[in-house]
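Worked Example 4.2. Read the sequence first, then its structure tokens.
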Amino acid sequence: MKRTARQNPWRVMLAVNATVMTGLFLWKLTQRPFIPYIHLLVDYHFGFIKRALIGAVVALFTTKIPVWLVFVLGGSVWLLTLGLFVQLFRRTFGFDEKQLPLFVFIIGSPFFLKNFMFALGHFDIYGCLAAIILLLVPARSLAYVLLATLLSALLILIHHIHLLMYVPTIIAITVLRHYLARDLTPLNVGVGALAVVGLGALFLAAQFFGTMPIPQADFVLYLKSRMADPSRTDLLEFAYVWYQPLAKEFQDTWARMPSNLLGVPVYALLIWLHTPLWRYFAAVIGALADQRHRRIVIAALIGVSLGYLIIFLTVFDYARWISSWAVCMMLLLHAAKTLPAAKAVAPISSDDRKTTILGWVITLMPRVGIIRPF
């Protein structure tokens, strides 16, 4: 006999997750948006500058940037990501009762939308949004490769670290959805190779030639000229990041490494709490009809993870990087599920007691964090 919605804990978990996310947003409204606000102020006024695309787009519509725009823009992107992901999940897995546990383990994960809400206004979510778009649109022609290249270039212009954060996932999605679905030709291989080389060149240009060409004091004055309330100088505390060379980022990261490594057991525990999800992903890979496809999916998971290992050694916002790594794994699950399978994969059990307990644990976790866990 089927359980009613009240008797089904997975439906209750969805309601609790929605409440937690709403609470996170209300709490976020009380916080000062340091880095997200500066990203809306910096544009290409002084030439090609790294991390300036969002501000340049905003400058097309207004010359004075209010603080509330961080929450409106960040909240809108968050809602768009939520809506498109729900559509993606519906198309990939469906929304019948048996898929509720899988949906809860993804949508309710503290790595995913909860952490994007906690980091509202930061640039990470744009990479996730781009990957979801590429999982939704048709992948039948070279136009798909060009779209993936365009989105990747925009991400690098938003922040060059996207080359390691979400661009590898976008490349993996492009390979799984486009290249594995048809014969390789000199044209499509050449376009893909040129795209990779071009994105690498764009990253190098942003990293090494996108520094601010004026003294920091003059830069701060310009930022004040774009603020709706120039008296809020406290929001300009992190203007120095536009002057920080790569060597300084390494130095800061390794100086914090001993204390940040203390959080590794916590991240490991958070990953373990998602065990039913990872087991399901392994089953999806094992069920693929073509052994070559299985190997390519595994290689993609390794490649994406190596990108995050480099980030781990370079920039110290570990809680964000671990969260985005987990999101990339979840997105690659959707990509792998589109490949031909030799057998059906059993859904995550909704009646298993341990699975239900893990579902409740991740549901009640509000987020992971930005630099340190919680």
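Now turn to a second chain, presented in exactly the same format:
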Amino acid sequence: MGVLRQEIRPEEAGLDAGALDRLDRHCARLVDAGKLPGFLVSLARGGRVAHLTAYGARDAAGLPVENDTLWRIYSMTKPVTTVGALMLVEEGLLSLDDPVGRHLPAFAAPRVYDGGSGDSVRTRPAAGPLLVRHLMTHTAGLTFAFYHAHPVDALYRGAGLESSVAPGADLAGTTDVYASLPLQFDPGTQWNYSVASNVLGRIIEVVSGRPLDEYLAERVFRPLGMTDAGFEVTDEQAGRLAEMYGESDTGGIHPIPGLPLRGRPRFLSGSGGMVASAHDWHRFMELLRRRGELDGTRLLDPATVDLMTRNHLPGGADLRASGSRPAHDEPGNEGVGFGLGVSVVIDPCRTQSPSAPGAYGWSGVATTTFWVDPGRDLTVQFHTQVRPRSSHTVFRDLKRLVHEAVTH
């Protein structure tokens, strides 16, 4: 078990201790007001942790958040799955331009929504193949069942995909169900956040010949020293797992069921199935910050990480302009593009909160987030366990307060 620890004083890392105290006080007020159960936040410059705060409770019994607390990171799983797939690309076993149907025959002849709804939906052949790169960039035309903005979203719900899992199915069976449904648009033409990383996880299984959890454990977690990361928690780990909370109608929070992690899951979600500690995630961020290498272990070539962390959206657009639905027309998406498995700041002048050009990262539905700022040699992670009913300002305020703390 690895435990994250502060290594240097903020001033040694070009961080203002007073501004960091403001950050801590702001987050602590959210806990004290019953908006969050507890939190952990860390900042590192040049790979050395210069600020680390754990505050509040990790469960309803009042056990405190500790530096070794385990967190369901949900969609922060996506960058990990992407790294795993890019390793196969570097080995020549996979290509970004491979048609998905080459590895998953059910996707060999994708069809696209062409009008109607329900049983009257009309489809047509896709204008071009669905490629592996479209899965990584969420330009595949896939969707989520919990969206309510397009007739294809309703088809996902009709197929029992409310939780992105086909009833009783594993990853292979679920991706076959995805393939039986029409795409929302021609691959590569728009951005729509979706189940694409689950399909990518299944491709990893087919190409590597290993279940996704075993592949990532062997190729990513163990080499990086991510000692707690995985798709399940053991009896020994269980006491450190933070409890999941949801928002109530009154604005408070209450415990809710979280991603089941006791015992190996039947469905291995490359989209959102992981648990990790702050130590684990610091190690993963360091792999990216150091462009594919950590402590003498290289998983990716620097050029591959550079490719991963550039904007790949059609025409160089941002998420707001590339979105196919009203849900993407949000201020927080302005000035932010998308690379391979991560968002990328392309125009800091248009972002909702202070950002640096080229900063990249992603967030999870339980209010976890991270970003790497190459220009400032900065990495940031924030963890709590609350599934909000709607968008909130936690991330926006966090970015503002971190921005104010960087002195040089």
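Notes for the reader: Residues 17-32 form the longest helix (16 residues). The longest strand covers residues 48-56.
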